[in-house]
Design brief:
Layout: H1 11-18, H2 23-47, H3 56-78, H4 82-87, H5 89-105, H6 108-117, H7 122-151, H8 165-193, H9 201-233, E1 242-243, E2 248-249
Antiparallel strand pairs: 1-2
Helix pairs in contact: 1-9, 2-3, 2-5, 2-6, 5-9, 6-7, 6-9, 7-8, 7-9, 8-9
């Protein structure tokens, strides 16, 4: 299907590439994502000081997240230069896919650490795993929806683009609704089983935040993927470095 995609079929992605997701705009996002990831890693290392987390498994996961943070830091600093961002923008958008995908999952580590440290019921962890798997499924469905939207012409000029509610709800809305119902059921069960359920409130907060972030990125990741596809296929999707002195592209 991708062989039949024409440049005019991706008009709205092109406008995004020249505006909201321009190379310098993506570089700003990298810094926000890096600060967020650094906080996650810092919290995780601090949590490992708990005697309840003296487990090689959690140390391994945290160490892996730290290595990914180092890679993220190198890319973030590299693309801090506006000239470099424009010169290597094709690689930049691939790095955007990596950073955003990592961002969608990493909040789950603090959730699992808090769950273990607070000795919360095991079924809470099970629900966390189900929500994480559901978020991955939502991402896959959102990508399918994105490419089907291209084929149906939703990214052409004067069309509504990726977020057409009538079609999006079938691919993303139902999994998201299921996740909300599952989370609500979890709260109800925990409140029934534990009169002092608020004593592990931070566990539920971390899980809810993980769920919201993952599903939110699942909605935006297809746009990043289509942008990467477009930049590699069509030259016009890669804007030139702006000559600000002359007020035009140079």
């Amino acid at each position: 299907m991708q062989k039949h995609i024409k440049e005019e079929d991706l008009y709205q992605i092109k406008m995004t590439a020249l505006d909201r997701l321009s190379p310098d705009g993506i570089s700003v996002f990298f810094w926000g994502a890096f600060i967020y990831s650094a906080v996650i890693v810092g919290f995780s290392f601090q949590a490992l000081t708990s005697p309840y987390l003296a487990n090689a498994k959690w140390q391994g996961f945290t160490g892996m997240l730290f290595i990914l943070l180092v890679i993220q830091a190198l890319g973030t600093f590299f693309y801090s230069s506006e000239k470099i961002a424009y010169k290597y923008q094709k690689l930049q958008v691939l790095f955007l896919l990596f950073v955003s995908f990592k961002l969608s999952f990493e909040m789950y580590l603090p959730f699992f650490l808090l769950h273990q440290d607070r000795m919360a019921p095991s079924y809470i962890q099970t629900v966390g795993l189900v929500l994480m798997a559901g978020g991955l499924l939502t991402l896959i469905l959102a990508v399918i929806h994105g490419f089907l939207s291209v084929r149906k012409g939703y990214f052409k000029r004067n069309e509504k683009g990726l977020y057409r509610f009538s079609t999006l709800k079938n691919y993303v809305g139902l999994p998201f609704l299921f996740g909300l119902l599952l989370f609500g059921g979890l709260l109800a069960k925990a409140a029934w089983d534990m009169p002092d359920v608020f004593s592990i409130g931070e566990v539920f907060f971390a899980l809810f935040l993980s769920f919201v972030i993952q599903y939110a990125i699942a909605l935006t990741w297809p746009e990043f993927l289509l942008l990467a596809y477009s930049k590699f296929k069509f030259k016009s999707f890669s804007p030139r470095f702006p000559n600000r002195k002359k007020g035009k592209l140079g």
